[in-house]
Specification:
Layout lengths: L1 E8 L5 H8 L5 E10 L1 H5 L5 E2 L2 H6 L9 E4 L2 H7 L1 H11 L4 E3 L1 H11 L4 E6 L3 H4 L2 H6 L4 E7 L1 H4 L4 H5 L3 H15 L4 E4 L8 H11 L3 E3 H12 L3 H6 L6
Parallel strand pairs: 1-2, 1-4, 4-5, 6-7, 6-8, 8-9
Antiparallel strand pairs: 2-3
Helix pairs in contact: 1-13, 6-13
Amino acid sequence: MKGIGLVTLSTDPVGEDAFKAELAGSPVKIYTTRTHYDEADHDAGGFTPIPDWKVVCRTLPPGDLVDVIAFLCTSATVALGNEALLACLSDARSGLRYTSPGIAVVTMMQRYRFKRIAVLTPYGLTLHNAFTPYFANHGIEVVTDHSLAQPMNLITDHDISNVPLSRIKRELEALRDAASPLDALFVSCAAFSISRSDLRQMTAALGCPVVASVNVMAWHSLDLLGEHERADEIIAWRR
């Protein structure tokens, strides 16, 4: 059986369970580890795991049990950039395949030719404002965006996990109305509690594909493992 080494943040209360739920029934084994990180550095727009990438990746099973390392943090990907993150992961555990929500969403949008998107995040302005240039570097235009951090006083991942789906849908509707036509609406952060069925309902209600961090990384993980049919089955906006 193919294996995924899942690296989650020590502060994330929902991402691990959500990722496993997305892959339930797939022929993969998921091995999970967690990493602490410099929170002040991350708030300022960087990302430094503690103690370091090599130690974190050594806590995953050795040998041929792991085929893909999946790092479940969107904002850290944006802070580092895809190439820097891939270099960190490959240096820590060479010879595998690697993904994160940021890498996965860029891959999906390029594959399906999504060029104009709206972005909803729960981050402070430093991290939130990094998304527009991040996507632009990959040929994707952020036409409109919004952060829930200040209006909802979101400070911790626990705060983010408790944002009601009704609020997320309302904010996405406002983004859609402000910038139609759009190719997709992207909800960034693995700490948001959004299931595949939630994404399908919002896609149907809003008339625009809704993409979210955990679901898109699950899709890309299966794609990297060669499970292409199963990957296509879990794309929420295609059903």
